[in-house]
Amino acid sequence: MSLLEERLNRGGPVSPHLQVYNMFALTSFLSILHRIFGAALFVGTLLFVYWIASAAAGPQAYDSAMGFLGSWFGYLLIFGWSFALFYHMCNGVRHMLWDTGRLLELKEIYQSGYIMVACALSLTVIAWVIGLSV
Amino acid sequence: MAKMQSSLRSAIALGSAKEGVHHWWLERISAIALIPLTLWFVVGLIGVVGADYATFAAWLAKPWNAGLMICFIAAAFLHGKMGMEVIIEDYVEPRSVQMAVKVFVNLMAFALGTISVVSVLIVAVRG
Predict the structure, then answer these.
(1) Which of A2, A13, B26, B56 has the maximum number of C-beta atoms within 10 A of its C-beta?
(2) Within the 72-111 window of chain B, which residues sit less than 8 Å (CB to CB) from chain A?
(3) Which of these CATH numbers, 1.20.1300.10, 1.10.1670.10, 3.40.50.300, 1.10.510.10, describes B31-126?
(4) What is the pLDDT of residues A76-111, one digit of tens each?
(5) Of the candidates B34, B46, B115, which has its C-beta nearest A49's C-beta?
(6) CB spacing of B95 vs A131 below 8 angstroms
(7) A 13-52 residues inside an 8 A Cβ radius of B
(8) Does the structure show a pLDDT above 70 at A8?
(9) Residues of chain A contacting B76 with CB distance shorter than 8 Å
(10) What is the pLDDT of residue B1?
(11) Which residues contact B42 (CB under 8 A, 6 or more apart)?
(12) Which of B45, B80, B119 has the CB atom closest to A55's CB atom?
């Protein structure tokens, strides 16, 4: 093997993940949730592309796509994606507040964490209540 | 200005030679843009969610809706692909596999983003 191949395939240290995450500490739990939801949102854009591309394909394709998205499974996917979206957005704001140096005391981290989850849940519920009623 | 950094560190030969700060800034700028864009997106979608194609197309054909939708798509895919990159960097080894996965994610983000933008334009122009 060449030196380059050796280097590329050496397999260096990786970040530990599940083995170090304390799921019973709100700090690490909310943190890894932010990452998981972020990744889920990225994968979920496939749903969005499916929908918008079907619209471009024409009324029949759009109706067909809306048929799937309106099914129980479609609703489930969209509901999950919407909660991930609101969670990631609210926690993103919390992250950016940390970037300014605010809310870094442990007590503040816990308090803002609870508030953030409450906001994310509320936004999800409000969006769906309104969305399902119109 | 574009890099959101001064050139001081280059001038006095200190600091990292890499791109981390630029990445950090782009992540935040796209995040800030995504807050109003996401709220607009959710509100807009709720308005058209039960409607037929004609109603939806008429909504998207409004220039501010089409324009904001494109902004949302661009910001979301930029922010999302950068987020995926750091996840990949953290967990994927060896380096060759890491690079391959990163390239794949970037290509997907670019392709899906382009398809989305083109779709918006088709609906907006065609009506």
Answers:
(1) B56
(2) 76-77, 80-81, 83-84, 87, 90-96, 109
(3) 1.20.1300.10
(4) 999 999 999 999 999 999 999 999 999 999 999 999
(5) B115
(6) no
(7) 14-15, 17, 35, 38-39, 41-42, 45-46, 48-49, 52
(8) no
(9) 45
(10) 52
(11) A82, A85, A127
(12) B119
Q: Which CATH class is domain A30-133?
A: mainly alpha
Residues of B in contact with A42 (CB under 8 A): 80-81, 83-84, 109
**Identity at B103, one-letter amino acid code:** V
**Mean pLDDT in residue range B51-68:** 95
Question: Do the chains contact at A45 and B34, CB–CB below 8 Å?
Answer: no
Task: State pLDDT tens for residues A32-91.
Answer: 999 999 999 999 999 999 999 999 999 999 999 999 999 999 999 999 999 999 999 999
pTM here?
A: 0.89
For chain A, the domains span 30-133
Tens of pLDDT, residues B65-78:
999 999 999 999 99
Task: Count Cβ–Cβ pairs < 8 Å, chain A vs chain B.
Answer: 96
Residue B87 one-letter amino acid: I
In contact, A91 and A115? CB cutoff 8 Å: no
Query: Cα–Cα distance between B76 and B79 in angstroms, integer?
Result: 5
Burial bucket for residue A25 (CB in 10 Å: 0-12, 13-18, 19+): exposed
Interface ipTM: 0.91
Reported as type and span, the H/E element at residue A110 is helix A106-133
The domain ranges of chain B are 31-126
